[in-house]
């Protein structure tokens, strides 16, 4: 059975639903992104391990660089060592994209990894105070 696109605007993201293989209606269980088909992220789930969260952050940062982001910083619990598996999310700040590109990139990352897994923060939509804190405390990915 061929995976179906989750949304028409993100054709590289496909959803696989075990239940749909048997004719039952249910939301997608797994999402596979263009980053690495071996990395399966449960939609709307927090990363299960520190290593899993770090791998997601690296994949997301690589993708943002390909799209033209010039600075990508990891901040929050994953950056400061207070990451709690299954409870913490990945906070990722990025610069260098136009407003339209930044919103598209943030939307893609949220679709690819789930709104509860990653929190992409485009620079142009940060308050100056929050931006200064992120730059001071963030870690380059």
Describe the protein.
Helices cover 33% and strands 21% of the residues. The relative contact order is 0.17. Helix 3 links the parallel strand 6 and strand 7. The protein has 4 helices and 8 strands, in the order E-E-E-E-H-E-H-E-H-E-H-E. It has a single domain, classed as Beta Polymerase, domain 2 (2-Layer Sandwich), CATH 3.30.460.10. It starts with a strand and ends with a strand. With 141 residues, it is α+β, with helices and mostly antiparallel strands. The strands form 2 sheets. A 4-stranded antiparallel β-sheet has the order 1-2-3-4, with no helix packed on it. The chain has a 4-stranded mixed β-sheet with strand order 7-6-5-8, with helices on both faces. Helix 1 packs antiparallel against helix 3. The longest helix has 18 residues. The N terminus is likely disordered.
Secondary structure layout:
Elements: E1 4-5, E2 14-16, E3 30-32, E4 40-42, H1 50-67, E5 71-75, H2 77-80, E6 90-95, H3 99-113, E7 118-122, H4 128-137, E8 139-140
Helix pairs in contact: 1-3
